[in-house]
Amino acid sequence: MKFGVNTFLFASPFTNASTRLFPRFKTWGFDGVEIAVENPADIDPVFVKSQLDRHGLVCTSVCACFPPRRDLRGTPAQQRAALLYLQRLVDLAGVLGTNIVMGPLYSATGRAEAVPAGEYRRQWRTVRAHLKTICHYAEDHDKVICLEPLNRFETDFLNTVDQGLAMIQEVKSPALKLLLDTFHMNIEEKNPAEAIRRAGAQVGHFHASGSDRGTPGNDHVDWSGVAQALKDIHYAGAVVIESFTPDVKVIARAAAIWRKIEPNRDDIARLGLAFLKKTLE
């Protein structure tokens, strides 16, 4: 099992200059970095890969970012922008050395609105068709698309493991898996450990976040239950710490981060990693 950290905790947008964070991540004991690519033009992936190699790190995954201008269930222009962006991330993943592109790929983050059942079904069909397109592209490039259910305050579209499994069943692509996040499951699942077991082999990636988005272990997540569930499904992928601070304005607004969750964001990564290694390995 490899342990990583999402760059949103420290930088937005992530650029070539943000690779100066890599020595710190390595010193803390991380194996890899989940790189949030807000705009592909912000980075030279060849340079970023060289810096990962230089510091003995891997890219665990490419994190997709969906502001309002990208939305697979939005206007035709938003849908086109989202598709082109996802195809570009698949290309970037190949250069960065990871096979995973992940995130809430179906909609703009923070779009949560009540719609009639018929409209929801129409949106579902639209997203399903687009996911088939991007998954076909991912299959051709030996990449995996990991779909992340978000909590009800960040999306009204896909909140639970069961909804994610339903989408996977309908898309019918080996390139589509689930990204599960302990923060979102803490809100939406009756029993997060059992949800992990239901997802089983469809779990392609995993986020370890405190129940308040803070440090894993300094919260009320049932980490022993999560650890056992991951063992039960023989999960061998990356476990990535994902948290946010008010300093990263765009994601803080979308994720409703209005205050400092912990006194020191370095400790979210450093102490969280120590706890996860002790608990999950």
Write a structural description:
The chain is an alpha/beta fold and 281 residues long. It has a single domain (2-280), classed as Divalent-metal-dependent TIM barrel enzymes (TIM Barrel, Alpha-Beta Barrel). Helices cover 43% and strands 15% of the residues. Strands 1-2-3-4-5-6-7-8 form an eight-stranded parallel beta barrel, surrounded by seven helices. Strand 7, helix 8 and strand 8 form a beta-alpha-beta unit. Helix 3 (76-96) runs parallel beside helix 4 and helix 7 runs parallel beside helix 8 (223-232). The longest helix is centred in the middle third of the chain and has 24 residues, at 117-140. The chain is globular, with a radius of gyration of 17 Å. The termini are close together. The relative contact order is 0.14.
Please give a handful of descriptors for the protein shown.
single chain, 281 residues, alpha/beta, eight-stranded parallel beta barrel, 10 helices, 8 strands, 43% helix
Brief summary:
With 281 residues, the chain is an alpha/beta fold. Helix content is 43%, strand content 15%. The protein has one domain: Divalent-metal-dependent TIM barrel enzymes (TIM Barrel), CATH 3.20.20.150.
Strand order of the largest sheet: 1-2-3-4-5-6-7-8
Largest sheet: 8 strands, parallel, barrel
Please state the overall shape, judged from the principal axes of the Cα atoms. Answer: globular
Strand percent estimate: 5-15%
CATH topology: TIM Barrel
Low-confidence stretches: none
Overall pLDDT level: 96
Task: State the name of the first-level CATH class.
Answer: Alpha Beta
What kind of assembly state do the chains in view correspond to? single chain
Rg over CA atoms, rounded to whole Å, is 17 Å
Structural class: alpha/beta
Query: How many structural domains does the protein architecture include?
Result: 1
Task: Say how many strands there are.
Answer: 8
What is the H/E string?
EHEHEHEHEHEHHEHEHH
- Helix proportion: 40-55%
